[in-house]
Design a protein that fits this description.
Helix 2 runs antiparallel to helix 4 and helix 3 packs parallel to helix 4. The strands form 5 sheets. The chain has a 6-stranded mixed sheet with strand order 1-2-6-3-7-17, sandwiched between helices. Strands 11-13-9-14 form a 4-stranded antiparallel sheet. It has about 450 residues and is of the alpha+beta class. Strand 4 and strand 5 form a beta hairpin. The protein has 15 helices and 18 strands. It has 2 domains: about 280 residues, Zn peptidases (Aminopeptidase); about 120 residues, Alpha-Beta Plaits (2-Layer Sandwich). Bound molecules: ligand BES and zinc ion. The site of zinc ion has 5 residues, from loops.
Length: about 450
């Protein structure tokens, strides 16, 4: 049987298996789900073995395990592809906004709804099924393949870089391959060539050593919540330009040629507003929405707390207040350097009436990948053949820090071969994967590997 026909013939089983995978609540950030994360790793191991990988191992890290698999039978004359994916997911909260339960995969029309459907279990599983299709129809893969699937991507991959550094031989390859991004539309294939980086901090402002009465002390005690808000307000202007000194020093400017190219990317402003759920866009006026979200840095408060937030009024002046702040970075902003810059600035603008603590939660570098490699051309042809239309090269605003690690530690470029859609609701309620893209993903990977 032809390899692509095999995929078509077994499509229902592939979908059922993906649904099993999605039933495991592998939420990496919650200690209560530690065993579920491991269960997802074990599930993957079983399916990698069943797909034909002769060597599969669940490898321990100080945190959640890494699933490693290898199939090198194509021989030394053929390239080795290193596939990366992640089997952990974000928490499903807020739960009451889900139309179907997050860990009960539900097919509505062509969309499979579940946490992790698109990010990244559905996309990671594409590679397992592509391998199976090769194995069952040709008995072998056309190239050598190594896989690492991690269980800590959604918490900033704290153990991945040390793992890669310690296992460079195990991971040695010619090209990286990741399906954890999206294309532009059902019939609009795209290849991502740049990702943003991330620096993520938690700031705590400490005032009185206990909560005090806002009537008795208000006006004479500097309220940490008020202070925190004033400090945050000094981090950017009303149009989103970050006002931390030095923040833009290492930002790689967009060349006029790249701006002209980005301007040609089909962009439906009305659809974008609808997807985002906003009436109007916002941000640096000198840049387009696409440039602002992919090629310019951004600073956002992700959460803020302190004081009384239950129903009703309580007249209290809280002893401390905190905020989580993320900074999306662009090449060549270095996450550690940016974190130090922000920390120093926060300390500098803090009034003497409070103490400020800054915690570095995690970070990751952005990346730009080569577009002129033979592997990129093979990816281009694979998308074009599967979707009946040439893919467009775009930048993306999300982060996949391992791309920079592959470049720096393993010396390899990565192909970002994603199959999600812009409205997949990643990290949000009602995440879904457009199932025709699951099958097209398997087809594209098969064509890519055959064409390398
Ligand atoms: N798959 C996403 C990143 C993504 C989504 C890139 C869409 C491009 C298009 C990934 O799983 C993710 O969410 N990454 C985190 C990384 C962080 C925790 C270091 C992110 O971007 O917030
Ligand atoms: Zn994610």
């Amino acid at each position: 049987m032809d390899t692509l026909t095999y995929v078509y013939t077994h499509r229902q089983r592939f979908l059922d298996e993906l649904s099993d995978f999605l039933r495991i609540p592998s939420i990496s950030t919650q200690a209560a789900h530690k065993q579920d994360v491991r269960a997802a790793a074990d599930w993957l191991r079983t399916h990698l073995s069943a797909a034909g990988f002769p060597y599969v191992e669940v490898m321990e890290t100080p945190g959640h395990p890494i699933v490693y698999a290898r199939w090198m039978a194509a021989g030394p004359d053929k390239p080795t592809v290193l596939i990366y994916g992640h089997y952990d997911v974000q928490p499903p909260d807020p739960l009451d906004e889900w139309r179907t339960p997050p860990f009960t995969p539900t097919l509505v029309g062509d969309d499979l709804f579940a946490r992790g459907a698109s990010d990244d279990k559905g996309q990671a599983f594409i590679h397992v099924k592509a391998a199976e299709a090769f194995k069952m129809t040709r008995g072998a893969l056309p190239v050598n393949v190594k896989c690492i699937f991690e269980g800590e991507e959604e918490i900033g991959s704290p153990n991945l870089n040390p793992f890669i550094e310690a296992h460079q031989d195990l991971l040695a390859a010619d090209i990286g391959l990741i399906s954890d991004t999206h294309i532009l539309g059902k019939d609009l294939p795209a290849i991502i060539y740049a990702l943003r980086g991330l620096a993520y901090i938690e700031v705590t402002v400490i005032g009185p050593d206990h909560d005090v009465h806002s009537g008795l002390y208000g006006g004479a005690v500097n309220n940490p919540l008020n202070v925190l808000c004033r400090m945050i307000a000094q981090l950017q202007d009303a149009q989103g330009h970050v006002t931390i000194p030095g923040f833009y020093d290492s930002v790689r400017d967009l060349s006029p040629a790249e701006r002209a190219e980005l301007a040609k990317v089909p962009f439906d402003r009305a659809a974008w507003l609808k997807e985002a759920g906003v009436r109007s866009d916002w941000g640096e006026p000198a840049y387009t929405i696409l440039e602002r979200t992919t090629a310019r840095p951004a600073l956002d408060v992700n959460g803020i707390w302190g004081g009384y937030i239950e129903p009703g009024a309580k007249t209290v002046l809280p002893g401390r207040a905190s905020a989580k702040i993320s900074m999306r970075l662009v090449p060549d902003q270095e996450p550690q350097a940016i974190t130090r810059l922000v920390e120093a600035y926060l300390q500098k603008i803090a009034p003497p009436t409070v103490q400020v603590e800054v915690k570095d939660l995690h970070g990751g570098e952005g990346a730009i990948v080569r577009r002129d490699s033979p592997a990129m051309q093979a990816a281009f042809r694979a998308y074009a053949a599967t979707f009946g239309r040439d893919p467009i090269f775009i930048r993306e605003g999300g982060s996949i820090p391992v791309v920079a690690t592959f470049q720096k530690v393993l010396g390899i470029e990565t192909i970002l071969m994603g199959f999600g859609l812009p409205d997949d609701q990643l990290h949000a309620p009602n995440e879904k994967f457009h199932i025709p893209n699951f099958y097209k993903g398997i087809e594209t990977v098969i064509r890519f590997m055959s064409g390398l």
